[in-house]
């Protein structure tokens, strides 16, 4: 009896090994579907994709419908408007932002600031966030931006406050902005000492101005810095 059980168990383990090996071989043989972008990237000079899959389009009809609904809500429009009036209109008045500026919005969330900039006529706006919201915001780690040095005229973020590594976050904004370009951040409303602390994170920039603003219903301080001409 014992011998029979032993033999049965041994046979069972042989079968198990055979099944496991087969699955393993199948996994080896089955290469992932090659993924060629069906449409060309919008700004190929600005990014180095980690894989060819990154450009695979994910925009489909339901998403399009969802966006149309979202963008027609009063909440969306008031938030977009608040970015325009609190941050971007002043930047235009300062002569820093123009329609031909290349602007990067870091940690852009759902893309209010991207919509505000595009809506005002800025032609080259890029929004990134850990979780993408196509078509306004693409996925990228703010601590490791997939853009060349000096690719933008202006980098903006309203989320420096929430950054895991604020110094790294700031350094990446500076790196992707051209020498003499601008870094603009909106942080929770604060006084001069805290403004200085924020500016200190931007090691290659100097303070230009700050102002208290209301952004998406919150009191915030908008800080404008200019990156050094020679870095
Ligand atoms: C920027 O573009 C918008 C939309 O095309 C236009 O209405 C506006 O006049 C432009 N601004 C400047 C300063 O050219
Ligand atoms: C902005 O608000 C903070 C806190 O309320 C205040 O300390 C600071 O003086 C204000 N800054 C300006 C420029 O009004």
UniProtKB/TrEMBL annotation:
Gene3D superfamilies reported in the protein's UniProt record: Vaccinia Virus protein VP39 (3.40.50.150)
Pfam families in the cross-refs: Methyltransf_11
Domain Methyltransferase type: 104-185
Protein name in UniProt: Methyltransferase type 11 domain-containing protein
Regions crossing the membrane: 12-29
Keywords for this protein: Membrane, Transmembrane, Transmembrane helix
């Amino acid at each position: 009896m014992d011998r029979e059980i032993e033999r049965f168990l041994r046979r069972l383990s042989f079968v198990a090994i055979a099944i496991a090996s087969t699955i393993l071989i199948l996994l080896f043989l089955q290469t992932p579907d090659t993924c060629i972008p069906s449409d060309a990237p919008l700004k190929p000079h600005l990014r180095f994709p980690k894989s060819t899959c990154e450009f695979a389009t994910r925009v489909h009809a339901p998403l399009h419908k969802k966006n149309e609904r979202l963008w027609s809500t009063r909440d969306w429009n008031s938030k977009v408007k608040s970015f325009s009036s609190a941050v971007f209109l002043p930047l235009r008045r300062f002569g820093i932002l123009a329609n031909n500026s290349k602007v990067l919005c870091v940690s852009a969330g759902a893309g209010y600031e991207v919509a505000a900039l595009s809506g005002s006529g800025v032609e080259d706006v890029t929004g990134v966030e850990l979780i993408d919201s196509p078509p306004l915001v693409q996925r990228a780690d703010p601590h490791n931006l997939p853009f060349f040095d000096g690719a933008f005229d202006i980098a903006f973020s309203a989320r420096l406050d929430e950054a895991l590594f604020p110094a790294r976050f700031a350094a990446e904004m500076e790196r992707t902005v051209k020498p003499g370009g601008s870094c603009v951040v909106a942080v929770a409303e604060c006084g001069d000492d805290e403004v200085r602390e924020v500016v200190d994170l931007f090691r290659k920039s100097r303070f230009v101005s700050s102002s208290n603003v209301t952004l998406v219903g919150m009191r915030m301080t908008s800080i404008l810095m200019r990156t050094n001409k020679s870095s």
